[in-house]
C-alpha cells in the first residue's frame, strides 16, 4: 500500500481549515506543503504564518517541500512550524551534506528533492544520510502539470541505489499523480505519492486518497 501526501497547494485557500480537517479524516499519511520563493521557481506560494496555521489544525505529519534558494537559512523556522520532514532541493544547496545535518540536528527528518533534469546518481554519496528522496515528475513551481514519464526510470534507479547501499530512505514522487501514474510509480518503487489536483479537484477527495493508498 502506498503512503499518500496530499499537496495543500491545490487546496481551497479560502477554506483551508475545512480541507485540512478533511485530510485528518482521510487515509492520507501526511500533508505535503509546497513553499515557493519566486526565485528558485517562478511562483510564490505561502510562508511561515500560513504554515503555522496549518500546524494548528493538522493531525498528521507535515511534509514540507522547500522550493527556495539556500533553504539552510530557514531550518529553525521550518522546525518551529511543526514540520516533521524538511525537504530541500539538491539544486538549491551549495553544501547539501551540511544542510541535511542541520535538519537532523533540529529534530526533523531530512529529505532531498531532485528536479526532472537532475540524475539520481548525484545522491550516491549522501543516500545513507537522508530519510527521503523526492523525485519531481513535473518541473517544480506550478500545480496541475502533466506527468513526465522519465521520472519512472529515475525511481527504479533510485530504488536500486538504496538497495545497494542498504539505506533506509523512502522514495516520494510529486507531480501529475493520479490513479494511473500513481500505480506506475509504485510499481517502479515509490513509497509515497504526492497528489494535489487529483485529490482536491475530485468530487470526493477522500475516496481518491483511499484509491491511491490502496495501490
Write structural notes for this entry.
With 215 residues, this protein is α/β, with parallel strands linked by helices. The chain is built from 8 helices and 8 strands; from the N terminus they run E-H-E-H-E-H-E-H-E-E-H-E-H-E-H-H. It has helices spanning 16-25, 48-57, 75-80, 96-105, 150-165, 179-188, 197-200, 205-213; strands at 3-6, 31-36, 62-67, 85-89, 109-114, 132-136, 170-174, 192-195. The protein is globular. 45% of the residues are buried.
Would you count the extended β strands for me?
8
Beta-strand percentage range: 15-25%
Number of helices: 8
Spatial arrangement of strands, main beta sheet: 1-8-7-6-5-4-3-2
Helix content: 25-40%
List the helices and strands and how they pair.
Layout: E1 3-6, H1 16-25, E2 31-36, H2 48-57, E3 62-67, H3 75-80, E4 85-89, H4 96-105, E5 109-114, E6 132-136, H5 150-165, E7 170-174, H6 179-188, E8 192-195, H7 197-200, H8 205-213
